[in-house]
Specification:
Domain Peptidase S74: 416-510
Strand order of the largest sheet: 8-9-10-12-14-16-18-20-22-23-24-25-26
Protein name: Tail fiber domain-containing protein
Oligomer: single chain
Signal peptide: 1-37
Structural class: alpha/beta
Shape: rod-shaped
Distance between the termini: 228 Å
GO biological process, one term: positive regulation of DNA-templated transcription
Helix content: 10-25%
CATH architecture of the largest domain: 2 Solenoid
Number of helices: 4
CATH topology of the largest domain: Alkaline Protease, subunit P, domain 1
CATH class of the largest domain: Mainly Beta
Radius of gyration: 57 Å
Keywords: Signal
């Protein structure tokens, strides 16, 4: 072997150690692409051999082994091949790195840093001498630029990878980024913020687009500003949204979808019940599979978010004005009860209403039908005609006219069982009290009432003797319980009968006295007749 000292120079890198002997060779790495219609995975490597005195080693056969290491000069070997090279009269030799093994496809230039190790036998044999390794700088990355040459109008873009394999994503600084991460099948585009786009915060098959957005859940999507999707299959879109429940969706602004499979479309809203939905502003869906619409719904209940209960509010329409003034205009319970009107939030019946309902005419009189146990519509409450409203049960049984007159097609029967009463006391002086009342004929002042001649009493006069039969409304108008007068009339009749019986006795006694008087008159006449006869006889004598 010729006695030469080795020197290795990298045109774009550092100088190899010069302690190696016995030859001196200067190697220059040009690393230029071999250009043709489609760039191959190769780059040129050119060396110049000189002896220790600086003289050219011309027209000699040399052998090279080139190895590319990942991350460090002694790191994982990702490429290796050997070359037989011939120096020319100037001591120069040229080889194409990658031409022997069919390219450099095993080197992922964009994912890490790489070092090129050179081993050489100046005699062309297998006594290779390690000349050291140096970092491959910018020139071979022209190979990576081959991908950019494929980004043309109307051309499809296909980048391949394998989940769980490939290089880890390097730590990203804050700022605009466009990232395709094959290791997790994830895509990022926008403004990276606060470590959101590092491996630990990137979910498999996830997508994040925008500023300060994070999609850490598997299959998750985060789009917009400061929106975060942390759970599997979760979606956060808009501004300041959080989707932390598996399969949850938060779209809009300042929403928190924390329940499993819950959905929010709106602003300042939250879901606590699994499978719940909130659409609107300032809403909170608490019960399992519940739906809340509107604005600032009532939230005073505490349902189990995981278990369905009959008293859950499964549908609400909120009409509140703020967090401290929440209200519902419609509430439907899981048991089927419906609350209509402002804040009927705990309906106790199938329909529980606050306020008035209206049933309109639509070809037939307005009203409500009622089925019996056989589902026959025998009952009806509503308009009889335009001026009458009443109750129908296999016929009109009771109705009231627009003039205030009431009609009963049957008997009026009132509860009067002794067992239902207490403090029972008989009447006193009913006849005297009834006798103090005055009946009247009159007409109504209200022209909407029946204007025919009326018969009745004056409530104020009745109140003087029967206060229990008179009531006064909130406007001060008085009404008379005419039915309540009937017992007093009965007692009055009884009192009259008693007096009549007394009179009958007196009459009978008087008749006897009259008979006695007649007999006395006859006796007196007889006495008088006898006296007169004796007087006449005495005179004749």
């Amino acid at each position: 072997m010729r006695n030469r000292t080795l020197h290795l120079h990298m045109q774009a890198g550092k100088v190899f150690p010069n302690y190696l002997k016995p030859i001196a060779v200067a190697l220059v790495l040009l690393c230029s692409l071999l250009c043709n219609a489609q760039a191959p995975q190769q780059f040129s490597f050119q060396g110049v051999a000189r002896d220790a005195a600086g003289k050219i080693v011309a027209n000699s056969n040399v052998k090279l082994r080139l190895t590319i290491h990942k991350s460090t000069a002694t790191g994982q070997s990702v490429f290796q091949e050997e070359h037989d090279a011939q120096t020319n009269s100037a001591g120069v030799f040229n080889i194409n790195v990658g031409s022997v093994v069919g390219g450099l496809t095993g080197v992922d230039w964009k994912s890490d840093i790489y070092f090129l190790q050179v081993e050489l036998d100046p005699d062309g044999g297998n006594n290779l001498i390690d000349l050291g390794a140096t970092q491959v700088m910018s020139v071979p990355y022209a190979l990576h630029a081959e991908e950019a040459s494929r980004l043309k109008n109307d051309d499809p873009i296909v980048l391949k990878g394998e989940i769980g394999n490939g290089a880890l994503l390097p730590t990203q600084q804050s700022g605009p980024r466009l990232i395709w991460y094959p290791r997790k099948g994830a895509f990022r585009a926008g403004d990276h913020f606060a470590g959101y786009w590092v491996d630990g915060n990137i979910g498999e098959y996830s997508t994040a687009l925008g500023s300060a957005v994070k999609a850490s859940g598997k299959y998750s999507i985060a789009i917009g500003y400061n929106s975060v999707a942390t759970a599997q299959e979760s979606i956060a879109m808009g501004s300041v949204n959080l989707a932390s429940g598996a399969g949850s969706v938060a779209i809009g602004g300042s929403n928190n979808a924390s329940a499993i499979s819950s959905k929010i479309f709106g602003e300042n809203s939250a879901t606590e019940g699994n499978g719940s939905i909130a659409i609107g502003n300032g809403l909170l869906a608490k019960a399992r599979n519940s739906i809340v619409l509107g604005e600032f719904n009532w939230t005073g209940d505490s349902p189990n978010p995981n278990v369905a209960v009959a008293t859950d509010r499964i549908f609400q329409i909120g009409n509140g004005t703020g967090k401290n003034n929440r209200a519902n205009v419609l509430t439907i319970m899981r048991n089927g009860n419906i609350g209509l009107g402002n804040n009927v939030v705990d309906p106790q019946f199938s329909v529980d209403m606050a306020g008035r309902a209206r049933i309109r005419y639509n070809g037939s009189t307005a009203g409500v039908y009622f089925d019996n146990s056989q589902n026959a519509t025998d009952g009806f409450v509503g308009m009889k005609v335009d001026t009458e409203i009443g109750f129908y049960l296999k016929g009109w049984r009771f109705w009231v006219t627009d003039q205030g007159n009431g009609y009963l097609n049957g008997n009026l029967i009132q509860t009067s069982d002794r067992r239902l009463k207490t403090n029972i006391q008989p009447f006193k002086s009913s006849l005297r009290k009834v006798n103090s009342l005055q009946g009247y004929h009159y007409n109504w002042e209200d022209k909407t009432k029946d204007q025919t001649l009326q018969t009745g009493l004056i409530a104020q006069e009745v109140e003087q003797v029967f206060p229990e039969l008179v009531s006064t409304n909130k406007d001060g108008y008085k009404s008379v319980n005419y039915i309540g007068l009937v017992p007093h009339l009965i007692e009055s009749v009884k009192e009259l009968k008693s007096k009549t019986d007394e009179i009958a006795v007196l009459c009978k006694e008087l008749e006897g006295m009259r008979e006695m008087g007649k007999r006395l008159e006859l006796l007196e006449a007889s006495i008088n007749s006898g006296a007169n006869s004796r007087t006449t006889k005495s005179a004749a004598k």
